[in-house]
Amino acid sequence: MAAAEEDFLERSFVQRGRAFVERLYSNHEQRRRLYQYGFTPYVGRRFELVAPQLITELQGGADFGADSVEARFQLFFRLGERVRAEPGIGYRVRQTAGDQTVLANWIGVLGWWMQRPEAVAPSPDNLRAWQRFVTENLEFRLGVAVGAAVAQAWGRNAGDLETPTLETWRATTGLPWIGFWFRELLRWGTLDPFVAFALAQGLAQTRDEAALLRPEFEAWLAAEGLDRHAETLIDPQRFLAWQRSRILQPVAGDAVLAVPAQLTQVDGRRGSYDVRPIVGNGSVEWIDAAGYSVGRSLHSPTLLTAAPERHDFRLTAGAVTEVVRTF
C-alpha cells in the first residue's frame, strides 16, 4: 500500500513538472525570468507589469543626492504607491481594526520611519503596530519588489558579469545610485544614503550621530577637488574612499598603536574591519566577529599587551594596511 502511494505521488510530481514546462510556461525565457524574480509564477507575472514602472521611477531619481528631503520622500511615496495594492506583492495586514487603520495611514508611517520633516510619531499604544508594518511591508514587500526590479535591470545587461561590483553596477543597470541605495534606506529608516552608509559601516550608532559626520565627508570632497554633483554626493565609492582616508583618533589618555598587516581572506573593499587576535608562533591572525581570517601581522607585545581581551582592534586597508588598537 505504501509503495503504491509512493509511486502515485512520484508520477503526480513528474506530471505536474512536465505540465509546468510543456503547457503552462512553455517559453524558456519566460520561465527563466519568473525564476529569477523569486516570486511564485502567478505573482511573477503580476510583477512583470509593475517592474517597468518601478524602474522608470528610479531612473527619474538621478538628482536624489541633491534633492530636498521632501523631494526624496516623494520618490519613496511614488514607489510605495506603485506596489501598495498589487496582488501578491502589495501591503498586507491583519484584519483587525488597528492594523487596518495603520494600512490606511501607510504614508504617515512611511514618513515617520524615513524621518520626513514634521512627520507625526505613533503613540506608545500604536508603536508596535507601526513597527510591524515597517518590517513586513516597507522593508520587506516594498524593498523586495524594488530590489527585484533592480536585479532584473542588472541581469538584462550583465552579459558575462556574474557578480555586481561598485565599479560596474551603475553602467550595467542603467540606473542612478538611488537604485543601489533604496533597500538600505528602507532598512535604516533614513532618506540620506550617507547616513545609511555610516550606520552600516559602524561609524555611528544612531541616525543623528551619522548625520553629524556628513560635513566631514563633504569637506573631504572639497579637499580632494571632487565635484558636488548629485550622484557624487551619494556615490558609495566616494563614501568608501572617504572612510579609508580618515585618521583614527586616539582614545583619550592612550596613544594609538598600530602594526603593519597583510590581508588574508578579504580584498579590503570594506576599508576597515573590527578584529580580534589569535596569537600564533611569532605572528597574529586577525579574525572578524564571524571567525573569518581578515589579516595577519607579526606579534607585537606593545599592541596586544598581556590582556588583549580588554582592548578593541581594527584592521584598515588602503595605501597602508595595518591593525590599530582603538581602545
| Residue share in β-strands | 5-15%
State the helical fraction.
40-55%
Overall geometry comes to: globular
Return residue spans where pLDDT drops below 50 for at least 5 consecutive residues: 248-255
Radius of gyration: 25 Å
Class from helix and strand fractions: alpha+beta
Question: What is the typical, i.e. mean, pLDDT?
Answer: 84
**CA-CA gap between termini:** 69 Å
Q: How many β-strand runs?
A: 7
Number of domains: 3
Distinct helical segment count: 14
Main attributes?
single chain; 327 residues; alpha+beta; 3 domains; 7-stranded antiparallel β-sheet
Question: How does this structure look, described?
Answer:
The protein has a seven-stranded antiparallel beta sheet with strand order 1-7-6-3-4-5-2. The N and C termini lie far apart (69 Å). It has three domains: 16-191, no CATH class; 196-245, no CATH class; 257-325, no CATH class. It has helices spanning 2-24, 28-37, 41-59, 69-84, 97-104, 106-113, 127-157, 166-173, 177-188, 193-200, 207-211, 214-223, 236-245, 301-304, and strands at 257-260, 262-263, 272-279, 283-287, 293-298, 313-316, 322-325. The protein is an alpha+beta fold and 327 residues long. Helix content is 53%, strand content 10%. The longest helix has 31 residues, at 127-157.
